[in-house]
Sequence to fold (136 residues):
Amino acid sequence: MSVDWNSLFSGLIGVFLGAAIAYFSQRQLLTMQLGAADESQVRAAKFDTARRFFGFRHSITGDGFSTAMNEVFVVFADSPSVIRAMADLYATLSSPGKPLADDKLVSFFKTICDDLKIGYSTVGDSFFIKTFNARN
Fold:
C-alpha cells in the first residue's frame, strides 16, 4: 500500500485552514457582540445620569445633582462636547456673581440631550430651568 503524501498534506492543510477560518470568524462575531453589549451599558449609564440631572435640577446645590455631576467625566468620557459644557458650567458657577449661570446650565442640559439623541425642540429653554413642585 502506497501513501499519496500530496493528497494527505492537501487534505490536512484544508482541515486546518477551515478550522482557523471558523475560529477567527467566531471570535470576531463574539467580539462584536460583546462590544455592542458594552455600548448599550454605556448608553444606559448615560441615561441614568441624565435622568438624575433633570430630576435633581430643582436643587443644583443638593446631593443628587452633585452626585450626577461628579459622574459626568466618567460616564460621558467619550463625549467631548458634554465634558466641555460641564467645564463651562463649572467655571461659571465658580466665578463671582455666577454670570450667565442659567444659560450655561441650559447649554449643558442641551448638550447631554444631543449626545443621547433626546429631542427638545418642542420645549423652550425655560423648561430646562423650571421645575415642577406642587408645593410652590
